[in-house]
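Sample log: DNA-binding protein.
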Amino acid sequence: MSHAIVPRERIEKLIYLIREQKVMLDQDLADLYGVQTKVLVQAVKRNMDRFPSDFMFQLSKEEFSVLWSQIVTSKGKGGRRYPPYAFTEHGVAMLSSVLNSQRAVQVNIEIVRTFVGLRRLLASHEELARKIIDLERKHDSQFRTIFEAIRQLMQPSTGATKKIGFRRSEDK
């Protein structure tokens, strides 16, 4: 197995959940591809027909402000004049076709593998949650039966009870 050009752990740290979608930001992608952010954005803008809204969107100023307040480390390159673009998995896959570099292709392969791995992990968590719910339902019905039996045993008897034991013939 060949050594990855970018470690999967590094890529995972650059995937954010925005608008209920897993995305990567333009500046992080540019860094991974070894290009300036403005070069990446220019390539995208020249090929906007390849990036529909489910592939890429620009963050609102509010989203950008919230995201930036959560990112503690600064890139040290000064402020941005506009909110970043966010690329979904499909948008990231499309980037390699507009950047036209071997590094972009190799990095994209690793990014797509990371997205697929995260999807598998999420699916396994969903399967585990489903199994836990099934177990809870199964045990709820079992406990319900046990509690019903206990309630019946706790009810006072209403009928006459027979005495238990032997009777001598003279007591009859």
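Observation: The mean pLDDT is 79.
Observation: The helical segments are 8-13, 26-33, 37-46, 61-70, 89-99, 102-154.
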